[in-house]
Specification:
1 helix; 4 strands; 12% helix; 40% strand; elongated
């Protein structure tokens, strides 16, 4: 399963560190290679649907929730 690195973005509820990317534009993501293949089909400025699995504490365990967000891609040099 592909993870996410970067800064925390909780103000808008989009993506947080620790979220696990499980789908991009309805393509299942099972590995880092899957994630790269899905993103190679896109270009900066495109909006993509990303589904993440988020784990949150609930009592003595963790509860998982799938969250779908729309993200506009940016180039890595900006």
């Amino acid at each position: 399963v592909a993870g996410l690195r970067g800064t925390r973005r909780t103000e808008t509820g989009l993506i947080q560190i620790g979220d696990v990317i499980i789908r991009v534009n309805n393509v299942d993501i099972d590995s880092e290679a899957d994630l790269f293949r899905a993103l190679e089909r896109c270009k900066p400025g495109d909006k993509v649907k990303v589904t993440v699995c988020r784990f949150e504490p609930e009592g003595d365990a963790f509860k998982s929730t799938n969250i779908e967000v729309s993200i506009q891609l940016q180039s890595s040099d900006t």
